[in-house]
Amino acid sequence: MKISEWLKYNIEKTEHDSFIISGARGSGKTTHMMAMAYEMISNNFKVKICYDVEDIPDDLCNYHCIFLDDFATKFYKRDSSSKKNREFAKLIQEIREVLPMIITTSPSKSLFDKDIRSMFKELNILSPGLLVIEGGVFFEVDLLQEGFPKFFRAQKLKERKRKAKRASEFIRSMR
Length: 175
Description:
This protein is an alpha/beta fold. Helix content is 41%, strand content 19%. It has one domain: Rossmann fold (3-Layer(aba) Sandwich), CATH 3.40.50.300. Strand 6 (130-133) and strand 7 (138-140) form a beta hairpin.
């Protein structure tokens, strides 16, 4: 099954799903997420790829899916009592009521606190281009679809620029 088919079903039935693509560093989590986003865009779904909370759009009702890249690093379970984590859990719950689908990446679902974990189904990479959800549903992801490499490079460049900017700001704040 293709992820865009699942999304179409969710839209038609007014359903919602939240997925965490999990795996070790370098296992292809972000690549698979980007390929899913590209597939959805190619099928005329409106998506947003977010690298930080500030990237989450205000006009969520205009989107079919948002992708949250590596959000477990921003909302770690050991900080579950922090105001930031509580607010993020509340935000995710509200987003779930508006969007047909949310997909995030994380080295492990266990890195999120239990409230956030309970909202997501784990999506594991079995092999390049093949993911499986808890319960045995398989998703095929075309990592070689036409135009995807250019899209992927542009997204990675955007992410790198953001990380460099955050690092610079952090260094300045330490002085």
